[in-house]
Amino acid sequence: MLQEIKTYHLPMPLKMGSVNCYLIKTEAGFVLIDTGGKNNRLELETLLANDGCQPGNLKLILLTHGDFDHISNAVYLRTKFASRLAMHEGDVGMLERGDMFWNRHKRNVLIKWLAPMLMGFGKDDRRPPDVFVQDGIFLAEYGFNAQVIHTPGHSLGSVCILTSNRDLFCGDLLINGKKPLLNSMMDDPAAGNASLEKLKSLLIKMVYPGHGDPFPMEMLFTSPTSAQ
User: Fold this and answer.
1) How far is 196 from 181, CA to CA, in rounded Å?
2) In which residue ranges of the chain is pLDDT below 50?
3) Is 115 within a domain?
4) How many CB atoms lie within 10 A of CB 15?
5) Within a domain: residue 212?
6) Total domain count for the chain?
7) What are phi and psi of 123, to 5 degrees?
8) In this predicted structure, what is the pLDDT of residue 17?
9) How many of the other CB atoms lie within 10 Å of CB of 141?
10) How far apart are CA 156 and CA 154, in angstroms?
11) Does 226 map to a domain?
């Protein structure tokens, strides 16, 4: 089954690095995993158009978690492409209320105030998703031969997506800076470590993180398991 992956590295504001979005071309159309910040909107639309993604053939927009650098274009793209928008219910208030610390244990008042401005997340970008994805759900109805894996830690509603080709889209559970690591930015470190153990039990070839370059899964286990 055709599942061609395009990786988009989109720059974040104030030279804070980049965030990844992934466009998967299937026999039925396209699936977009994460959407970047509003500062990336024009660039992302251009990339999608150049790769043949247009209104009517984007079957699903799937959010790995609710941080603004991943969701800020979700509602806009859902409307423009007449797509379905999906995320885990554990992070729904981040999208629906525009509160990145909704349902998080650890709150940072400064980041809560700055994040919407930096990412351009406003009232027009808020709405509930069309679909709640749960652990173990398959995405075949959208033409995507893949399964959702609930992997809390970075946030309560963080998910990974594992394809039939054994490619894993991991959101911000794992990062790849100088080397692949379990993300140190965990709202619930115990849950994050449990999610990593859950991944260890699965057959995974390539990992596509929310930040950094894709990497073979075996690289993770030759590195320390958490960022310093």
Assistant:
1) 10
2) 227-228
3) yes
4) 7
5) yes
6) 1
7) -65, -35
8) 84
9) 12
10) 7
11) no
Distance CA(38)–CA(25), nearest Å, equals 23
109 burial via Cβ count (<10 Å: 0-12, 13-18, 19+): exposed
**Domain around 129:** 3-220
CA 193 distance to own-chain centroid = 19
Q: What is the pLDDT of residue 105?
A: 84
Q: Is residue 225 part of a domain?
A: no
Interatomic CA distance for residues 107 and 109, integer angstroms: 6
Nearest to 121 by CA among 70, 48, 165: 70
Place of tokens 């089954």: 1
Take residue 84 and report the two structure tokens written for it.
């379905």
- Cα separation, 28 vs 26, in Å, equals 5
CATH number of the domain within which 67 lies: 3.60.15.10
**Closest C-alpha among 166, 90, 99, 169 to residue 134:** 90
* Residue matched to tokens 């927009």: 61
Length of the chain: 228
pLDDT value for 228: 38
Helices 74-81 and 41-50, axial angle in degrees (round to 10): 40
